[in-house]
Design a protein that fits this description.
CATH superfamily: Protein tyrosine phosphatase superfamily
Distance between the termini: 14 Å
Number of helices: 13
Strand content: 5-15%
Largest sheet: 6 strands, mixed
Radius of gyration: 18 Å
Length: about 260
């Protein structure tokens, strides 16, 4: 399997199990252990039951503002960790109302600038001290055995959760092309959400509003340019992704082998 597997929930979109993805040594990621998704603020009753069976640990990468606007529904028996990896309002990523209004007014009519803005955000993921500390904490949680899945999420499950998935997949030895394909698969799984958000923003702007569908696509979607910007920044700064894991996230080779022993079969 080249990409993560979509799980079926009523009110939870873009929830995907990394299980089945193949490592370069022929092993596969264990199913039911590593799951990425969007926010958990609108779970139905059936979703809550299914989620309780799926997970014992949730990691929330969102800002305080996002969590206030759309708090996760808490399920008894699950441990919740708040690990923000952005320290400011970042429209297109955080989906906070104030941030969105600001960025739509700045980039809504200029697709090239919208795309560059998002590339800059991925550049910052690779350079930010807060992001590095947050993802390092995330990986340390994964190093402990878990009975059920560790689920990590942001708002849409696209950017911060996508980078988290890329880091995990790199540690587990998934080939780079498959990591990128898995990142881009978000566009398929969020197709309906992206279309809805695009039409909503255009309707709010009105006939005279300066927003274009192409600019909104760059702000709401996953683009190859974004993940490539992340990788290029890391490799120019640390020499390789392995150098980033070692020098920035503080992982030893023994740590990596431990994680692989937990999540590969």
């Amino acid at each position: 399997m080249s990409t993560s597997k979509l799980l079926v929930f009523e009110k939870l979109h873009n929830i995907r199990d990394l299980g089945g993805m193949r490592a370069s040594d022929g092993r596969r990621i264990v199913s039911g252990k590593l799951v990425r998704c969007g926010d958990l603020s609108e779970l139905s009753g059936q979703d809550r039951k299914a989620f309780a069976l799926l997970s014992d640990t949730v990691i929330d990468f969102r800002t305080d503002g996002e969590r206030r606007e759309k708090p996760d529904i808490k399920i008894p028996g699950i441990r919740y960790h708040h690990i923000p990896v952005l320290d400011s309002l970042t429209a297109g990523i955080t989906r906070e109302k104030a941030a969105d209004r600001n960025v739509f007014s700045r980039f809504g009519a200029e697709p090239d600038k919208a795309r560059r803005y998002m590339c800059d955000m991925y550049h910052s993921f690779a350079e930010s001290d807060l992001a590095a500390a947050g993802y390092a904490q995330f990986i340390r949680i994964l190093m402990k055995p878990h009975e059920r899945a560790v689920v990590w999420h942001c708002t849409a499950g696209k950017d911060r959760a996508g980078i988290g998935a890329a880091i995990v997949e790199e540690i587990l030895g998934v080939e780079r092309n498959a990591v990128v394909d898995d990142y881009l698969a978000t566009n398929k799984y969020l197709q309906g959400d992206i279309a809805f958000l695009t039409e909503f923003v255009k309707s709010q702007a009105g006939e005279d509003g300066l927003v274009t569908e192409e600019a909104l696509k760059y702000l709401f979607g996953a683009e190859r340019d974004y993940i490539e910007e992340y990788y290029q920044t890391i490799e120019s700064k640390y020499g390789s992704f392995g150098g980033f894991l070692r020098d920035r996230l503080g992982l030893s080779w023994e740590d990596i082998l431990q994680i692989q022993s937990l999540y590969l079969t």
